[in-house]
Amino acid sequence: MMTQEELIEKSDVLLVLAPRDPKKHEELANLALRSGKRCYVDKTFAPDHFAAKRMLDLAEQSGTPCWSSSALRFAEEYQAADKTNIKGVNAWGPNGFEDYAIHQLEPIFMMMQAPATEVMHLTNDEVYTGVLRFADGRTATLSGYAKGSPFMMNIARSTENSVLEIRSDYFRHFIEALVEFFKNGTIPAPHSETLSIISAWGALMEAEKTPGIWVKVPKD
């Protein structure tokens, strides 16, 4: 069996995968993010703001092109949506928070185009709800349903609301973006947005311990 060092040396590009345990990503990605080789770290990128910041800083200091994202970022419906003048959004989808919230947070932050300042977590056996508040007073919510749901989003603007249901083959588009990155180094998910997403995800995980209480989102 090859060591990590041998594997990285023999590889042209790198993927780091521990999708059900993001706490392992920082350790697993340490050598890869120092390598200077194009590196994709699977969702969920990191368990909290501080780990994500350390990982992104390490990649930048080492000159390693890297990114991470939910495949939902690449849904045609989200890519085509008008992202101007959005007052708030409500997203919903299937399954529990820890494994699936990233698939809702990714498009929420694409739409809101700002970091969250505080979050609240509400939950019961069948559904969780996360609430995000932004510095300008706007809010967003995400809900997950244990017995299944399509991925959907209601987008509120000053003039109208619009509802998106995700029907496109977003995973295929994700793979296309991943191949493009490995070929040409094109990074489709800005590091600043990834950090905002993970900061909110980690804060929501913390807020799950005290349902109904606002928890501050860490920042630099």
What would you note in describing this structure?
The protein has eight helices and ten strands. Helix 2 (25-34) packs parallel to helix 3 and helix 6 packs across helix 8. It is an alpha/beta fold and 220 residues long. It has a domain at 71-171 and 203-216: Dihydrodipicolinate Reductase, domain 2.
Considering the chains and any ligands shown, give keywords for the structure.
220 residues, alpha/beta
> What percentage of residues falls in helices of 4 or more residues?
25-40%
Low-confidence stretches: none
Oligomerization: single chain
CATH topology of the domain at 71-171 and 203-216: Dihydrodipicolinate Reductase, domain 2
Order of helices and strands: HEHEHEHEHHEEEEEHHE
Tell me the span between the first and last alpha carbons. 40 Å
Principal-axis shape: globular
Strand order of the largest sheet: 9-8-4-7-6-5-10
Give a count of the beta strands, DSSP E runs of length 2 or more. Answer: 10
* Strand residue content: 15-25%
Looking at CATH, the homologous superfamily of the domain at 71-171 and 203-216 is Dihydrodipicolinate Reductase, domain 2
Report on the biggest sheet: 7 strands, mixed
CATH class of the domain at 71-171 and 203-216 reads Alpha Beta
Query: Nearest-angstrom radius of gyration?
Result: 17 Å
Q: Structural class of the secondary elements?
A: alpha/beta
CATH architect. name of the domain at 71-171 and 203-216? 2-Layer Sandwich
**What is the number of helices?**
8
Overall mean pLDDT stands at 94
